[in-house]
Design a protein that fits this description.
Blueprint lengths: L18 H13 L3 H12 L11 H14 L4 H9 L11 H9 L5 H8 L1 H5 L23 H15 L16 H8 L6
Length: 191
């Protein structure tokens, strides 16, 4: 999807910008917001080529995680975040929770943002010990998160994320979630 630029700002340095320049930028940004869900869907599709040694590719893992959240009655923000929780792996596996959380941040509640931001340490309860890591790494987040955020992150990691590597699980296709992705990513919560 390409920009449909009618007007452009005139500054070459931000410290020389005017309100009129920013009004143009604001209008164009709003007009092009519809490209965001399509970029997210493309990033999700790219995860179909990443397995990194897991028995399922990362798209299948995300689809299964979202399907489990959906089956448990999670709201659309949580379901979409579950689908996108490993989207950062398209860029950097070690930094994937922070990348995914920041991509989601303007579109979801603080609780859902925190769920994704800390999901690696919460999921670590199920495998960090294999590397000599702290299986209770989630506890380092207890004071920084509200009790509700901590509970949501635990539910996400324990009930949906860590159980979603099953090639025999009845996994819905990405198309099943597309309208929810478009709805959640269709409008940013600026500032």
């Amino acid at each position: 999807m390409t920009d449909t630029i009618d007007e452009r700002a005139t500054f070459t340095r931000m410290d020389e910008s005017t309100l009129d320049d920013w009004m143009i930028i604001g209008r164009e940004t709003a007009a092009n917001q519809s490209r965001v869900p399509e970029v997210i869907l493309d990033l999700l599709r790219s995860l179909g080529s990443i397995s990194d040694g897991f028995i399922t590719d990362q798209l299948t893992h995300g689809l299964q995680t979202a399907a489990r959240a959906e089956a448990d009655g999670a709201d659309d923000e949580v379901v979409v975040a579950a689908l996108c929780h490993d989207i950062g792996k398209a860029i950097s596996v070690p930094n994937h929770p922070a990348i995914a959380a920041e991509i989601l941040r303007p579109y979801v509640s603080e609780d859902v943002f925190q769920m994704i931001r800390v999901h690696q340490d919460f999921q670590g309860q199920h495998y960090y010990h294999h590397f000599g890591g702290d299986a209770d790494a989630r506890e380092k987040h207890r004071e920084a998160l509200t009790p509700e955020q901590f509970e949501l992150a635990a539910r996400f990691a324990d009930d949906w994320d860590q159980t979603s590597f099953d090639p025999d699980y009845p996994t819905p296709p990405l198309e099943h979630f597309e309208e929810r992705v478009r709805a959640v990513f269709g409008q940013a919560k600026m500032f």
